[in-house]
């Protein structure tokens, strides 16, 4: 029998988990624009601006639906600019966040919200042939021909 001091068992492991510091693999400065993520952010800003302009230029026959489309377009546009500025000005190196995961979550959430906005805008566009007032003798449509074309462009 071995004495207690001469035990061959190792000490128990430290129960505190070890998390390595987050690594930023996306470049900072203007180099972010040469990556796929930077190109997607620039496209989100560009197309978000176009959707914002197109939806705002039509009469809003269904405020609840198109209000959500405008909310998504404006919010995604603003957040895309903020997200791009974080990398352009080098704040990504100063904030300890897993930027690869944050980038993936940001683009995934933006896709889901834009897809929902697309469905609502397409639903509004599909109602163009209905009259604005059902009990009226005038056959004024919900969307005129010009607004219908703008609404199609905003949907796309």
TrEMBL record:
- According to its record, what are the GO cellular component terms? membrane
UniProt keywords, alphabetically: Membrane, Transmembrane, Transmembrane helix
Could you tell me the superkingdom of the organism this chain comes from? Answer: Eukaryota
Positions of transmembrane segments: 36-56, 68-92, 104-123
Q: Which GO terms describe its molecular function?
A: structural constituent of myelin sheath
Membrane topology per the entry is: Multi-pass membrane protein
Tell me the compartments it is located in: Membrane
Protein name per the record: MAL2 protein
């Amino acid at each position: 029998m071995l004495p207690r001091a001469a035990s061959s068992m190792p000490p128990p492991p430290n129960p505190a988990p070890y998390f390595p510091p987050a690594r930023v693999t996306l470049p900072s400065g203007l180099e972010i624009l040469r990556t796929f993520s930077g190109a997607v952010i620039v496209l989100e800003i560009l197309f978000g601006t176009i959707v914002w302009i197109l939806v705002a230029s039509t009469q809003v026959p269904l405020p609840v639906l198109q209000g959500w489309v405008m909310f998504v377009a404006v919010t995604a546009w603003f957040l895309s600019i903020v997200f791009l500025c974080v990398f352009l000005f080098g704040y990504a190196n100063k904030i300890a966040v897993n930027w690869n995961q944050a980038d993936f979550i940001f683009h995934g959430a933006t896709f889901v919200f834009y897809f929902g906005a697309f469905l609502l805008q397409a639903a509004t566009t599909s109602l163009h042939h209905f009259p604005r007032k059902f009990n009226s003798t005038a056959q004024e449509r919900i969307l005129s021909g010009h607004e219908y074309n703008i609404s199609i462009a905003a949907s796309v």
